[in-house]
Design goal:
alpha+beta, globular, CYTH-like_dom_sf, signal, 9-stranded mixed β-barrel, Hypothetical Protein Pfu-838710-001, single chain, CYTH domain-containing protein, 9 helices
């Protein structure tokens, strides 16, 4: 019995020493969002826009962005967004890193060097398609129960900033220098709120999200859809661009929703 046990122990040790290495982290594979701004002057009214895209109302949301008065965060590709729903849905804050003027490949390489990989389910990696430009982004959303300090009608700014500080993920707040990040966040002010009315519809046989944003007397409307594959995004981008152009529904101003609020 002792001899058998000894041989078994040697066998176990042999196979253990040649155990397979841990599975490598998956490279980042972003999803795709195709989006276009609509020319509201081409429609008789907002209801006409909604009917054109066979859309049904989903949610009304107040949207705020937090940045310094000279927008130091935005200049470095950081976006801090607060959404408060008119319904009893949970409030959410979003941390987003964008890479304007950088190719998607180079942006992914930078993110990979910072330790990001495709197996991180709490982050969303996305290739945004707008204005004929591809932009890579990383975002993370945190949700909270609504409370008296963050309501659809008003917010406690100091409380909101405190929330952004407490919930900021390590990889986000340390992308550059954490001391700079925390100090800059302390200096932020709210931009907004914009009223965002969201609808679920379709265009050219593709499920589409329709959002109509109103802020300081101006309104923009955006149609968008999300798909997992580049080939799908390419096809939808081409067909939607052709269709919207031919119908006269494509806006000459393809500004982002962030810019719509923060550039005023």
């Amino acid at each position: 019995m002792k001899k058998v046990s000894f041989v078994g122990a040697l066998t176990l040790a042999f196979f253990t020493s040649f155990a397979l290495p841990a599975q490598a982290e998956s490279p980042i594979e972003p999803g795709y969002e195709v989006k276009f701004n609509l020319d509201l002057d081409s429609f008789s009214n907002q209801e006409d826009v909604v009917q054109t895209f066979n859309a049904t109302h989903d949610e009304d949301v107040r949207v705020y962005y937090f940045d310094t008065p000279d927008q130091q965060f935005r200049d470095q590709g950081y976006i801090h967004r607060l959404r408060i729903y008119a319904s009893d849905k949970k409030t959410n804050i979003t941390y987003k890193k964008v890479f304007p003027g950088v190719t998607v490949e180079d942006a992914i390489a930078e993110a990979t060097a910072k330790g990001f990989h495709n197996d991180m389910s709490n982050y969303k990696f996305e290739n945004d398609r707008k204005e004929g430009i591809d932009t890579f982004s990383i975002s993370r959303k945190e949700t909270f129960k609504q409370n008296k300090k963050l309501t659809f009608d008003s917010i406690d700014v100091d409380y909101a900033i405190k929330l952004f500080k407490e919930e900021a993920p390590k990889k986000y707040r340390t992308w550059d220098q954490e001391d700079w990040y925390q100090d800059t966040l302390s200096q932020t002010i709210p931009y907004g709120p914009a009223l965002a009315e969201s609808y679920e519809g379709e265009y050219l046989g593709i499920d589409a999200d329709l959002e109509i944003w109103t802020y300081q007397g101006d309104t923009i409307a955006e149609i968008s859809t999300k798909v997992p594959e580049k080939e799908q995004a390419d096809q939808i981008e081409e067909s939607w661009l052709d269709g919207l152009t031919e119908s006269g529904w494509l806006s000459d101003e393809q500004t982002s929703k962030t810019g719509f609020v923060m550039d005023k």
